[in-house]
Amino acid sequence: MDTPMTYKGYFAKIEYSEKDECLIGRVSNIQHPVTFHADSAKEIRQAFEKAVDAYLDDCARRKEAPEKPSESRRVVRVSPALHSVLALVAGRENKSVNTWLAEVVNRKRNKKD
Hints:
Blueprint (H helix, E strand, L loop, with lengths): L4 E3 L2 E8 L4 E6 L7 E4 L2 H21 L18 H13 L4 H16 L1
Antiparallel strand pairs: 1-2, 2-3, 3-4
Helix pairs in contact: 2-3
């Protein structure tokens, strides 16, 4: 079963970077970019928790409400061929498919406002 790493309601998406030879993570259920990295599975959990705590502390210092994590993961189903294209395009910008899609949708939505 594919169960996400969670902390204080935030989900982590973890990927391996061949180039950097480390694990790279991103909080996946908010729009704000919160990223972290580590060399091992044990360290990535600690880095994730530290990144979430730093994000929350930073919001408190700026007297801004932190973005509330969505309650569940959202899934968009596309064909394997389209997913491959999305992954290539997003990868060129060093982004995950989810991050890239969210940015494209937000840009489109903002143009209509």
